[in-house]
Amino acid sequence: MNLSKAATALLAVTSIAIPGLCQKPVPKPPQPTTFRFLNPADVNPVHLLPPPPKDGSEAQTREMDAVKHLIQTRTKERHDQAHWDASHEDTSPWQAAIGPDFDFNKFTATAKLLADVLNDQTVATSAAKNYFKRKFPVAAAMPGDTYGQWSCDDEDRKPESRPLRSYPSGHATMGFTFGVVLADLVPEKAQAILTRSNEYAYSREVCGDHYHSDVEAGHVLGTVLGTLLLHNEALKPELDAARQELRRAGITK
Q1: Among 24, 63, 170, 183, which residue has the least CB neighbours within 10 Å?
Q2: Which residues contact 52 (CB under 8 A, 6 or more apart)?
Q3: Which CATH code for domain 54-248?
Q4: Do residues 210 and 166 make contact, with C-beta atoms less than 8 angstroms apart?
Q5: Are 26 and 215 in contact (CB under 8 A)?
Q6: Domain limits of the chain?
Q7: Is the pLDDT of residue 31 over 60?
C-alpha cells in the first residue's frame, strides 16, 4: 500500500502534551491472572458486550475499509502520538491531563490504587479477548503491505502469528477504566482526563491495530470496570487514601 502523506480530517482530539514522546517504551510486566477485588461473575463478557462482526460479513467489511482509509490518511504527527500511546500501557498518558509536572510515582497511595485497578482491568480484558477470539485487522491486510503499516507494535511479526485477541481493545479498556477512576479522584480535571482516555483509545485505530468496534467495546468494558471499582467496598480504603493524598498535595479539593 502506498501510504498517502495528505492530511485529511480525522476525529478531533485535544492537543494534550505527551510526556516523554522520545522515551523508550515502558517494559511490560507479567500479565496478572487473578482478580484482587472484582467478582468474575460481575464482569462476564457474555453479559457486557455484543459479539463483534463476523469475518466476511458486511459489517466487518465496512470496518476493514475504515481501517484502510485511516491508515492511508493519518498524519505523521497523529501516528507518532498513537505509537507513543501504544508503548505506554500504564498511567503515564494521563499525567499531563492532571498537571504539567504531575507524576503518579510521587504519590504512593494513588500509585498503589491504580496498580490494583490495572490488575483487575487486565484480568477482565484478557477474559473477554479469550472469549470472543477475534482476528486483528492485520490478518486481513492487503498483499504487499508491511506489518508496520498495520500495527504500532515495534516487533516485526507475521500477521498470522498474532493471537485472536482483537476484541475488545486492551488499550481502550485500560484507558477508559483509568479515565473513570481518575475523573472521580480529580473531578476538577475530569474533562481533560476523559478526553485523554478517548484520544488514547482512538490511537488504536490510528495504528491500524484495531477495528472501531474493538475500541467501542473497550469503551463499554472500561467504563463498567471503572464504575464497579469505584463502588467496590474492598477497594474503598485505597480510594479514600488516594483522595486524601491528592488533596494534601493540592491536586484536588
Answers
A1: 24
A2: 60, 132, 134, 166, 167, 211, 213, 214, 217
A3: 1.20.144.10
A4: yes
A5: no
A6: 54-248
A7: yes
